[in-house]
Amino acid sequence: MAKYSIGILQGDDIGLEVVPVAVKVLQEAVDRYPGVKIDWLDLPIGYPSYLECGETMPQRTLDALYDLDGWFLGPIGHMAYPRDDPKAMNPHPFLRREFDLVSNIRPTKSFSSLPCLHQSVDLVIIRENNEGFQPDRNMFRGTAEYMPTPDLAMSVRVITRRNSEFAARTAFELARQRNSLKKVTAIHKNTVFKLGCGLFIDTCQEVAKEYPDIEFETMVVDTFAMALVMRPQKYDVVVSTNMFGDILTDEAAGLVGGLGMAPGLCVGPRYVMAQATHGSAPDIAGRHIANPYAMIMSGQMMLSWLGNKKGDGEAIQAARDIELGVGKVLDELAAVTPDLGGKASTGEMGEAVCAAMRNLPPGAGSIY
Ligand code: NAD
């Protein structure tokens, strides 16, 4: 029996709605396989935790995470946190850094039943997660943004060979696993950032030599931003530095139905965190209309990643079942949320995915 200990960190706003639905779907999937068991652990985080114990990132949550195989992190609505209280920190960059979650894997997939700007899109963007221009995580101490005078702001960008290599390796490994174009596209702007993007691209090129079976190309970020809108079908796995990746993944989500359709998985050498691309959507929170797809598929990727790590065929199969169940719900459109043109609540869409899985014969979907 393979056992997994997985944390549930709901986050804020719609996190309280989509995370429980994703947990339910994962549980339903593994219940189909007697050799897989998940021990769930609820842990406080975010604004609900601040109201309860005065901290958005309590020590007891942090201590517990070290012993887990992985966890769900719901969206964090940190823009609404009190600004002058250090105990109201934004937990997610901290977690990405603390647990060395270097690669953020963000797939973009179109469904022919949904109104998308493009059909036949199936690509994954790997975003380096912990450095680049992100000042809340790219320094050991202090912040990488500062104002020497009231009229001058400076931001330091950090690129290391180590994280560039990890992100590139994640991309090439994924390109090998996927049943797709077997191609990695590395995004840069080394025409201007000769040292930072230069180091990133040189490192990707070095890693590419170890994967002669995978086509490798590089593209300047502005050219790629346009190409992604015009011909997204040309891309398979894309790897980029942090801020370019952040922007490009939202752009890619826009091609296939919006942020509700954008799952994500943060991985490092040891830990894994399922975290959808979208934020806490305070504009729709409490109405139970948030699309749970992104969070369900983030969990699906986590289960698949853990199954692969432990060589657990049943967990991998359970993850494939989730993908098939979700695919069926999106094909039929009978129970989807309003952002996809339906009338279902978040919970009803999750229930429909569970029902679709119950009717599945043992199936075989792609890994991501
Ligand atoms: P957002 O992603 O929360 O929302 C943008 C738009 O997309 C909104 O109209 C929202 O209703 C919609 N949307 C998002 N997720 C959806 C879903 N699952 N189903 C249907 N519609 C969905 O971005 P924002 O409004 O700029 O930010 C809100 C808060 O979230 C802010 O505090 C921001 O800092 C934070 N944020 C957190 C994360 C994260 O935790 N990873 C990411 C981005 C933003």
Task: Tell me what the structure shows.
- The protein is an alpha/beta fold.
- The chain is 39% helix and 17% strand.
- The protein has helices at 15-31, 46-53, 59-65, 91-98, 161-177, 196-208, 221-230, 242-255, 293-310, 313-332, 346-358, and strands at 2-9, 36-42, 70-73, 103-109, 122-128, 145-149, 152-155, 183-188, 215-220, 237-240, 265-267, 272-274.
- The strands form 2 sheets. It has a 10-stranded mixed sheet with strand order 2-1-3-12-11-4-5-10-8-9, with helices on both faces.
- Helix 6 links the parallel strand 8 (183-188) and strand 9 (215-220).
- The chain is globular, with a radius of gyration of 20 Å.
- Mean pLDDT is 95; it is low at 364-368.
- Bound molecules: nicotinamide-adenine-dinucleotide.
- The site of nicotinamide-adenine-dinucleotide has 23 residues, from loops.
Q: Please summarize the sheet with the most strands.
A: 10 strands, mixed
Ions, cofactors and other bound molecules: nicotinamide-adenine-dinucleotide
pLDDT averaged over residues: 95
Continuous helix count: 11
Quote the distance from N terminus to C terminus.
24 Å
Please give the radius of gyration in angstroms.
20 Å
Low-confidence spans: 364-368
Fraction of residues in H or I helices: 25-40%
Strand line-up across the major sheet: 2-1-3-12-11-4-5-10-8-9
What oligomeric state do these chains adopt?
single chain
Structural class: alpha/beta
Proportion of residues in extended strands = 15-25%
Question: Can you write the helix and strand succession as a string?
Answer: EHEHHEHEEEEHEHEHEHEEHHH
Number of strands: 12
Shape: globular
